[in-house]
Write a structure and sequence with these properties.
Blueprint: H1 2-8, H2 11-29, H3 35-46, H4 51-76, H5 85-96, H6 100-133, H7 138-157, H8 161-175, E1 178-179, E2 186-187, H9 201-217, H10 237-242, H11 244-258, H12 265-279, H13 282-285, H14 293-317, H15 323-334, H16 343-346, H17 350-379, H18 384-403, H19 406-424, H20 430-452, H21 458-462, H22 465-485, H23 492-496
Antiparallel strand pairs: 1-2
Helix pairs in contact: 1-17, 2-4, 2-17, 3-4, 3-9, 3-15, 3-18, 4-5, 4-6, 4-14, 4-15, 4-17, 5-6, 5-14, 6-11, 6-14, 6-17, 7-8, 7-20, 7-22, 8-20, 9-18, 9-19, 11-12, 11-14, 12-14, 15-20, 18-19
Length: 497
């Protein structure tokens, strides 16, 4: 572990991590540019890096972008990322009273604490999860991949889970294009030689989160009015200690939610915000919705702890905890790193390096956030008509750089148009991303398990207790989804979350 920390603290990797964190903060601060979009686009920059550099860079982007959304949320009442909405509700009220700097300072401190809670729980529980995951064979891995897609679809769409499931199946269909991994039989290639190698998930990610976002936001009005400046940013220590208990509770909650495939930082942020309101003192509860520092602490701690939580299933099972973790998994795959139950034997010392990279990224995030608040404010003055077209070359370069293939650029454009159409018809994109990532695992695992079960009885299949538990869980998810499909939500605002 010590060697991994020293390696992560080497000058070059420190520089790479700092670059990733700063890009993430700036990206997250710009309205409409989500964490997942940042991860999907900037993955192209990591393609030319070494393994350790790519890990440090992508974890830096992940850590920085999750916090970055709080800057625009507090100062201009526009959440840079979806999980910053609770911070926007409370923080902008404080900014209007001249306390915007201190609100951002509490958001930074909370994000720092949340990052540490997520890392500590990740280090504490991943050995247990890895030991448990070694019992997962082909049948269990297929069911686990299926569970991730179903849960992602259900969590992304509220009362309309069918749209989320359809999105996940479409992602799986995209992943099935090309030669199958067992018999090398062409599937959905339509006689096109360029499709024999399959559709790379990187241009699909860039198109769905980059180009689609450009198409969605370009017609929008220009930038809002920005404040002239901010007051003191670093909050007093007594204020941090006052809400420390709430921060720890929200951090644990955010980590647990992050470990659930499909439940992203926005779910963690909203849920922690609601629970924090219920557990707050009467005096503090009266401030909720009118400018509460405790509410900011709850939301920001939860969404940053979500990072460590999302790494649990990603590293231990190879199942991304959310769409951003899926992009990180894609970056690891580009470096021929296969995560899962055997990560410690296949890549000795790698998991400790990831721990160290997360620690370093979290520490750099705290310093960089304090330094970048004021420069970020200036970026808000850029009209969307100028900002969004500047992102297009980044999308093209990112798609082309993976395989140096112009075909991938066309795939990116097609995915972008398709992602825009999905948003027009209210279909979530995150389940499709998980479908693209998890489909190869589900496909190979199912076919291997069918070979194994060919001469076995149904009682033998049922005796695989982990698989049986997963089947029961899948059935419960489907039943719950059907129930929500035919029931109207009592609170429209909750359904939207």
């Amino acid at each position: 572990m010590l060697d991994s920390i020293l390696l992560a603290l080497s000058p070059y990797l420190l520089l790479v991590t700092t670059a990733g964190v700063c890009l993430g903060i700036i990206w997250g601060a710009l309205p409409g540019l989500s964490t997942t979009m940042a991860m999907g686009l900037l993955i192209g920059l990591s393609a030319g890096m070494g393994q350790n550099s790519a890990i440090c860079f992508m974890l830096g982007v992940y850590t920085g972008s999750v916090f970055g959304g709080a800057i625009s949320a507090v100062l201009i009442n526009i959440p840079g990322t979806p999980d910053a909405v609770p911070t926007m509700i409370e923080g902008h009220q404080l900014a209007q009273r001249g306390e915007g700097g201190q609100a951002l300072g509490m958001a930074i401190a909370s994000s720092f604490i949340g990052g540490w809670v997520g890392i500590i729980l990740l280090v504490a529980f991943i050995p247990l999860l890895l030991t448990f995951a070694l019992n997962f064979r082909s049948w269990e891995m297929f069911l686990l991949a299926l569970t991730g897609i179903l849960v992602a679809g259900t969590m992304s769409t509220g009362e309309m889970p069918l749209k989320g499931w359809i999105s996940g199946w479409l992602g799986m269909l995209v992943a099935f294009v090309g030669l199958d991994a067992i018999h090398a039989t062409p599937r959905f290639t339509f006689g096109t030689f360029a499709l024999f190698d399959g559709i790379s998930y990187v241009p699909v990610l860039i198109g769905l989160f980059g180009l689609a976002e450009i198409l969605r936001t370009l017609p929008s009005p220009s930038a809002p009015t920005i404040p002239s400046g901010v007051d003191r940013v670093v909050p007093p220590l007594r204020m941090i200690m006052k809400y420390f208990k709430s921060a720890v509770r929200s951090g644990v909650l955010g980590t647990v939610i992050g470990a659930i495939p499909g439940a992203g930082a926005n779910v963690a942020s909203f849920l922690s915000y609601d629970i924090g309101r219920r557990r707050a003192s009467p005096e503090e509860r009266a401030k909720w919705g009118k400018g509460s520092y405790e509410a900011i602490v709850c939301a920001e701690t939860a969404n940053n702890a979500n990072i460590g939580g999302s790494m649990l299933p990603t590293l231990a099972l190879g199942i991304p905890g959310n769409a951003a973790a899926a992009a990180l998994l894609a970056a690891l795959t580009l470096k021929n790193v296969v995560v899962g139950p055997t990560i410690e034997t296949d890549h000795p010392g790698l998991i400790y390096f990831i721990y160290a990279a997360l620690v370093v990224a979290n520490m750099i995030m705290y310093v960089a956030a304090l330094m970048l608040i004021r420069p970020c404010v200036r970026l808000f003055s850029l009209p969307r008509g100028i900002l969004m077209p500047l992102i297009l070359p980044v999308c093209i370069i990112g798609a082309y750089s993976v395989k140096l293939s112009i075909f991938d650029v066309w795939i990116m454009f097609a995915a972008g148009i398709f992602g825009w159409l999905m948003s027009r018809f209210k279909f979530p994109v995150a389940p499709m991303v998980l479908g693209v990532i998890l489909a190869p695992l589900a496909d190979e695992s199912l076919r291997r398990s069918l070979f194994i079960f060919e001469d076995k009885s149904w009682s033998y299949v049922a005796s695989q207790w982990i698989g049986t538990v997963l089947i029961i869980f899948i059935a419960l998810v489907i039943i719950d989804g059907i129930r929500r499909l035919f029931s109207k939500p009592s609170d429209p605002s909750k359904a939207a979350v």
